[in-house]
Amino acid sequence: MERRLLAVLMVVLAALLAWVAIHRSRDSEADTPTSIAPSARRRSASATTLAEVAGLSPAEPESIPAAAPSSEPAREVVDAEAQVVHRVVASAGGASAAGHLVVRPIDGDTGLPLITFTVRAASETRFADESHRGPGEELDLTLTPATYAVLVTAPGYESVELPPVRVENGGRVELDGVALVPGRGRILAEVFGLPPGETVSVRLAGSGRRPCDACPAHWQGSTACPCGYAVECTTKRVDEHGLVSFDGLAHARFALQPVDEGGRALGDACELELASGDTASVELDASQSRTLEIEVVDVDGTSMAPEWSARVAREAADATSDDEPVTIGLAGAVNEHGERSTTFTLEFRRAERLVARGAFRSPALLESSFVSRRAGRASARRRTQDRARQPSDRLWPELSAPELPLVSVVGQVDERGIAVLRPLSTSELTLHATAEHFESAALVPADRATTRVRLQMQRRTDADPTSAASLRAHESGEAR
Questions:
Q1: In a 10 Å sphere around its CB, with 0-12 CB exposed, 13-18 middle and 19+ buried, how is residue 320 labelled?
Q2: N or C end of the chain, less CB within 10 A?
Q3: Could you give the C-alpha distances from 433 to 349, 353, 444, 458, in angstroms and in order?
């Protein structure tokens, strides 16, 4: 009996000792400091990821409601490369129905700030697309509170999309040092059919271009940079083998056009899309040009060529017989023979796209110059720079079509009374001509040889009822 009692007491004592040991171990663990991994130390209470700023995990949509703004909204400075937001307390004048998103992009190679760039911000229901052209180095967008995906683009740089950013009421988010990588693509062009003895260059248009480092110094001195960069296009001369290279290009659509020393187009333009960092080779044929002859036909169906031919002959005779040079007046004025000169303006389109403009005048007087002005209406200032997002509003836009400077073709009426323009593309073109209150249209067929078209002039429907009924009557000064 005593042995059984002793055994029971020993079991109870062992259980009691085990219970005491377990509780002492727990107390010791609670008092011991917990080690922190390096990554955890970097993400302290004063630094959170962009997903945390947005208030959601990467897989969650914008449907998670944001916490109400405090009286002292945080100023969030985003390190774009590390994708970390450092919170710094900033004072605010009071809560508002908008917040601020500030973007400061830099050159990824040099670290220098960019002053020409575009920021697109898209939430599920709101959209903003704003450009910065300087001065200054930042773009401050006033946005409706929401979570926005952000795309930053700049000419000649590869676009960068940033993780979603939450813009709060009265808050301010700064994306500082957003690094854009300069384009590293290249286009090699080989030009065939070079005109003997003529200097030929190639024009390159597209948003993937950027000025070189030496351009600003040349601009300050009002001189052209050897790199050939200009706002509309980059122009570089081909070598003796017809070769030219365009380097430092970003992903974009490009157009190339051979031109002569006077900037007149030689052959047709070539378009291509260049991927990031790729090299593309193109062949251009500068011999693909022709001469266009235009015979102008009056409203009544009679050709103006005989009359214009006589005027050309008379001007030539006057120029050789007089001791003093012939004085030529402005278009629309009346010469010593009572004849008016009419300026014809031409537009050439290929597949509905305007590709060239031209002009010539009827004989006797000098062509006039034209000034075009566009009237603009100031739009009402919006409280925020975003708007309701439409189905077509994508964060990544379609690549813009490259636009080369319009080809300008100036012609003159020869001794036959025919207007001659050169050089002109060999492609099929649609020609529209206007002259005073007359107009005409014609199809210019595809051809490499000299092409003749007839322009049957008609009075415009909006012409003044008192104006001359025909081109011949107008040039002779007769009223209707």
A1: exposed
A2: N
A3: 12, 16, 12, 10
CA atoms within 13 A on the CB side of 403: 8
The tally of CA atoms less than 13 A away on the side-chain side of residue 232 is: 8
Weakest mean pLDDT among 39-53, 228-242, 324-338, 347-361: 39-53
Give the C-alpha separation, 11 to 109, whole Å: 76
Residue 321 lies in a domain: yes
The model scores a pTM over 0.90: no
Radius of gyration from C-alpha coordinates of the chain: 36
Q: Can you say how many angstroms the Cα of residue 22 is from the centroid of all Cα atoms in its chain?
A: 72
Determine whether 54 is exposed, middle or buried from the number of CB atoms within 10 Å of its CB (0-12, 13-18, 19+).
buried
Q: What is the residue whose two structure tokens read 């400061």?
A: 104
Give the pLDDT of residue 437.
92
One domain, residues 295 and 420: yes
Backbone angles phi, psi at 168, to 5 degrees: -100, 165
Domain membership of residue 91 as a residue range: 45-58+69-180
Structural domain ending residue among the three candidates 147, 180, 213: 180
